[in-house]
Amino acid sequence: MPTLHDATGPELTAAQLHDILRLRVDVFVVEQKAAYREVDGRDLCPDTRHLWFEDAGEVTSYLRVLLDPDGVRRIGRVVTAPHARGGGLAARLMDEALTVPGEYVLESQTHVQGFYRRYGFVAEGTEYIDDDGIPHIKMRRLPQ
């Protein structure tokens, strides 16, 4: 049974950060063949919130919430290990992330924007291709 974890940047242990980064790199860099700066310097910030599921000592699903300078919360790095997909873990993480009231933005891969629409996110602007050739669209959720 997966266990939910919730921590700010400074609360993460070195082992937790390692396991989170491993999942993010395995999926975003290796599986999706997107060579980008996965380690961006924001993971250990005091206002960064990390949410993840761990099962049998392995991080199986993860997302982080950043606080932008304008006070808007930015959801990103939403990821689930291939063998854990389809079990609703990312949905449970989104439910937990959105318990903090406020405005949220995210940059969705276009093919999964329907997932974010379920949480009240609305597309802004037009689709764009990121530096790695992956179609994305900016989405926003106004305070509820």
Describe the SSE topology.
Layout: E1 3-8, H1 14-31, E2 49-55, E3 58-67, E4 73-80, H2 89-97, E5 104-109, H3 113-117, E6 122-129, E7 135-141
Parallel strand pairs: 4-5
Antiparallel strand pairs: 1-2, 2-3, 3-4, 5-7, 6-7
Radius of gyration: 15 Å
Q: Outline the low-pLDDT stretches.
A: none
Level-2 CATH architecture of the domain at 3-101: 3-Layer(aba) Sandwich
Question: What's the total count of β strands?
Answer: 7
Structural class: alpha+beta
For the sheet with most strands, the description reads: 7 strands, mixed
Give the overall shape.
Answer: globular
Strand % is: 35-45%
* Average residue-wise pLDDT: 94
Helix fraction, binned, reads 10-25%
Q: Determine the CATH superfamily of the domain at 3-101.
A: Gcn5-related N-acetyltransferase (GNAT)
Helix-strand sequence: EHEEEHEHEE
CATH class division of the domain at 3-101: Alpha Beta
Number of helices: 3
Main sheet strand line-up: 1-2-3-4-5-7-6
In the CATH scheme, what's the topology name of the domain at 3-101?
Answer: Aminopeptidase
Oligomer designation = single chain
User: How many angstroms does the end-to-end distance come to?
Assistant: 31 Å
